[in-house]
Amino acid sequence: MWRRTRRLADTLELPTPFSAEALITALAERRGRPIEILTAPLPAPVPCGLLVATDRADYIVCTAQTTELHRQHILLHEAAHLLCGHDRTALPETPALPLLVPGLPDGLVRRVLGRTGHSEPQEQEAELLASLILRRALREAAGRAEDIAAQGGAGALIGARTAVPPR
Q1: For burial by CB atoms within 10 Å, which of 3, 70, 118, 165 has the most?
Q2: Domain assignment present for 156
Q3: What is the DSSP letter of 52?
Q4: Integer Cα distance of 103 and 130 in angstroms
Q5: 107: DSSP letter
Q6: For 3-15, what is each residue's pLDDT tens digit?
Q7: Range of the domain at 14
Q8: Would 59 be classed as within a structural domain?
Q9: Dihedral (CA of 142, 143, 145, 149) sign
Q10: Exposed, middle or buried, 129 (CB in 10 Å: 0-12/13-18/19+)?
């Protein structure tokens, strides 16, 4: 699992500047099918994120009650399920589906993946891939910041577009 997720994370084209939303947009384009991000008040003990695969589109549902950093990780975790191909496995019984995503008819849904526990291999793989993607994105952003600083000094780091003219 480690080698597979490491290879996926290392070969994935990351958007610049990085955001989970931009990565998901690029993933949708690459897959040739829409991925919609939905925010919902997911009460405990429901998972804080879900991937719902339908015949026409994929939906990533993220809890509304979280921090921005946690939201980014949830989105990356659910996108990792798609990158790993977990959406192509058989649909288990999900009796709570109408409560979680009330706008989607039961017959339309092919697969629901929710973080019900980290002991399932698919959840471990998605969690590891999400962490590796975020680690790589942060490492590359730090490298770009160092390059900018070396080329343009501190003004470049804070977004200054022009230098103060010499007197």
Answers
A1: 70
A2: no
A3: E
A4: 27
A5: G
A6: 999 999 999 999 9
A7: 2-139
A8: yes
A9: positive
A10: buried
